[in-house]
Amino acid sequence: MSQFNIEEEIEDIAGGEFERVPVPTSKLKSWKSFLGMYAGEHAAGTEFVIGPLFLTTGVSAFDLIIGLLLGNLLAVLSWRFLTAEIAVKYRLTLYYQLEKICGKNLVTGYNLANGVLFCFLAGSMITVSATAVGIPFNMEMPKLTDTMPNGMTWVIIVLVLGAVISLVASKGYETVSKAANWMSPVIVLAFLACGIVALNQLGVGSLSEFWNIWGEGSEPFPGQIKYTFWHVVIWSWFANAAMHVGMSDLSVFRFAKKASSGWTTAAGMYVGHYMAWIAAALLYAVYLKSPEAQGLLANGEAPTVAPGPLAYNAIGIFGIIAVVLAGWTTANPTIYRAGLAFQAIVPKLSTFWVTIIAGTLATIAGLFPAFAMKLLGFVALYGFILAPFGAVIVFEHFFHKQAGIVKNYAEVANLKFNRAVFFAWAISFGLFYFISIQYDVFLSFVTLPAWLLCGVLFLVFSKWIQKS
């Protein structure tokens, strides 16, 4: 789910010179470039966790397999008809586009939220890699319900991994990115191999036997909620909400020759968010049949979701390597991007030091398994917080004439803080987060209503503020 493969190639082309100007025609890229980028970058460390977590929710075969087909299609349509459409119209980064509408001070707040959430995501990927590194040390793996570190071995491995990842992110981003482009096919191959081996271990010889792995579903594991068809559809649609309806990938598709390049995101969705998720779920299905897992379930405990042992059980040492690489290639660029978000807030600090700060926060987060074990909930929260800012861009682009408002009002009026944006986001976020908590509504279910309300309120408040 990380964006680094795309951003690395774009940064290599742009050299940072198009941060505040439209991308020139001479630098535009064909759809083939985006196809390879998206196919590789969505089969990453997060997939090793998300696949098994679907099984812990007691999802049925139909709900998972068909639900993912539809949810990922909706994500592709969002990229194609919203993100790519707007990106090729203006060819600006998300941050500069937001600054024109929101004002510099408000964008600073966005950057802070973005950076902190990136750190938490990177921390969960350090956790993923640690589950593989810990195998030779016979380390006790974190349980699904664990929130705190479970021993000194865990703490030491996470601290060492975090330090190495942070240092590489702060000094060797170009080298890491190039290496990651080579690693991506290896990781995709590992997912495919894991899925095939797991099917063999489960004794699956037909489509009906494959379907019966999930069957009609079951009760969720302790601490998990029951997923239905619509849980799967809406969650998979908004797993990357910050990137498509949240407009983060404006920075990516501003280099596309045509908006039709947005269709290439299907490669990422159906290689990573379909094949890889199902393959990882199959690994967990094998583990659930083991005496250890059956014993835990009999005692009313949730079996561990540790990607390292699951992959090792399927494909041996190659599995350990794949999990370490998948977690590392996700955490490293995520820390780098978090550092850039922080640097926008404190520009006097060097890239090295802001990246080290981001890496430190990510490492601290990685010590707590809850970020990885609750990844379904965290990803939903991540999209819910950031996506409404994208609604501001979308609604201004499509409806500014009908609403009778001035585009890029912060730039035109020389505002540093556009109240229309802030109040639209605060009301939509506050209202629907309250509904989610108070009435126990699945957070992804209220992401779209919050996004729509934020866009509408932005138009209403803009009309009122601009008139006054």
Automatic annotation (TrEMBL):
Stored InterPro entries: CodB
Annotated signal peptide: none
Transmembrane regions: 61-82, 116-139, 151-170, 182-207, 227-246, 267-287, 310-331, 352-372, 378-399, 420-436, 442-461
Keyword annotations of the record: Membrane, Transmembrane, Transmembrane helix
Transmembrane is among the record's keywords: yes
Cited PANTHER family: CYTOSINE PERMEASE, CYTOSINE TRANSPORTER CODB
Protein name in the entry: Purine-cytosine permease
Organism: Arenibacter arenosicollis
